[in-house]
Amino acid sequence: MSNDGLTICLWFDGQAEEAAEFYASVFPDFRPGRTLRRPASEQGPAGPVLTVEFELNGQRFVALNGGPEFTFNEAVSLQVDCADQAELDHYWERLTDGGQPVACGWLKDRFGVSWQITPAVLNDWIADPDPEKASRTFGAMLGMVKLDIDALRRAYEGN
Q1: Is pTM beyond 0.85 here?
Q2: DSSP string of 48-73?
Q3: Three-state DSSP class for 17?
Q4: What is the pLDDT of residues 25-55, one digit of tens each?
Q5: Are 21 and 39 a contacting pair, CB within 8 Å?
Q6: 133-152 burial by CB neighbour count: b if 16+ within 10 A, else e?
Q7: Residue 16: CATH number of its domain
Q8: 149 and 94 within one domain
Q9: Do 85 and 149 reside in the same domain of the chain?
Q10: 55 and 100 share a domain?
Q11: If we measure between CA atoms, which residue out of 117, 111, 112 comes closest to residue 91?
């Protein structure tokens, strides 16, 4: 799967640089891009940062200092599929620093961006053709805030 031609734009109220720096500290595969400042114009001299471009795990983002008109909500979230509990714990702990846990692997970071921190295998377990396995796994997930891969595996396996 390629991210060519797809960039996610995140609208911040003056926090674009701070957000990019925070995500750089969270994601080992962070790649910085260019930072654009408001150009000089009839309204005034060159000014504050307008956008900050970066990549997280190969996905392109632009953080836009758009102002207070719009804020993040749960209608859009970013999902991080984790290979193991250590990776899941890393993202959970870092992204909830200054943010808040929600439920079922969801959290909001310090900027209000919603994230789903999930085991990579979770959707396969929930979509299992055996309805009992799928139901047990889904039920276990519903009872969790931060997801526990071993507990989900035990539910999936019926242990």
Answers
A1: yes
A2: SEEEEEEEETTEEEEEEE--TT----
A3: helix
A4: 999 999 999 999 988 776 666 778 999 999 9
A5: no
A6: bbebbbebbeeeebbbbeeb
A7: 3.10.180.10
A8: yes
A9: yes
A10: no
A11: 117
